[in-house]
Amino acid sequence: MFLKYLEAYYPECLAVTLVHAGPFWFSGAFRMISPWIDPIVAQKIQFTKNLAGLEQFIDTDQIPKQYIAAESSSRIRNKSSTVSAANGFEYKYVLPQKGENDKMSDAEGKKAALEARNLIIKELKQLTIDWIKAGKEARIENATQEQKTAEIELHDRRDECQERLAAAARELDQYTRARTHYHRIGVLQNDGTVNWASLQK
Q1: What PANTHER family has UniProt attached to this entry (predicted)?
Q2: Are strands 17-20 and 45-48 parallel, antiparallel or unpaired?
Q3: pLDDT one-digit tens code per residue, 142-170
Q4: Tens digits of residue pLDDT in 117-142
Q5: Are 189 and 195 in contact (CB under 8 A)?
Q6: How many Å apart are CA 101 and CA 95, to the nearest integer?
């Protein structure tokens, strides 16, 4: 089902999918069904068995250390050189914290955040209409400086309104979406920023 929707609607959104150290029969099963999949999508699904396979797609210093450690152990057993990497990240699932989703039960807070966001949406729609009209007026041959300035001012006001809409959407998000593993480990911030560097700590 995933592959069906991917190839029909979103083929451009997939760069590559790596299936690493999967069951031995998995790649064989994929070879059997791949003729029915769009060739462009099929070539984006790759199977890797070891570190060398991963390194074809991912820089060694970006591979989590548990994969490096597994490869090093294998090389030690085979009396070959070990592998080292600068990336100290090791995946550990952080369990949900008590109270982390309390805001989802706050009906009044959700209502207020929703109303605030909807007001900004209404304002943005009107600013967009006004900006388009001002743009047409500013592009006529005998447009005045005032008309040109009005378009620029509306453009700036619209940009500022979009920033406020993004902030309002993030505020509403706390009432409608549960916190995830990435919130708990500090990658996703409440202000909408993404901090991958937190994984290196």
Answers
A1: PHOSPHATIDYLINOSITOL TRANSFER PROTEIN CSR1, PHOSPHATIDYLINOSITOL TRANSFER PROTEIN CSR1-RELATED
A2: parallel
A3: 888 898 899 999 999 999 999 999 999 99
A4: 999 999 999 999 999 999 988 888 88
A5: yes
A6: 13
Name which of 2, 3, 6, 13 is nearest 34 in CA terms. 3
Query: Phi then psi for 20, rounded to 5 degrees?
Result: -100, 130
Contact between 127 and 192 (Cβ < 8 Å): no
The residue among 50, 47, 48, 46 whose CA lies nearest residue 68 is 50
Domains of the chain with bracketed CATH:
2-77 (3.40.525.10), 102-200 (no CATH)
Burial of 173: CB neighbours in 10 Å, binned 0-12, 13-18, 19+: middle
- Closest C-alpha to 116, from 63, 62, 167: 167
* Single-letter code of the amino acid located at 47: F
Segment holding 182, helix H or strand E: helix 181-184
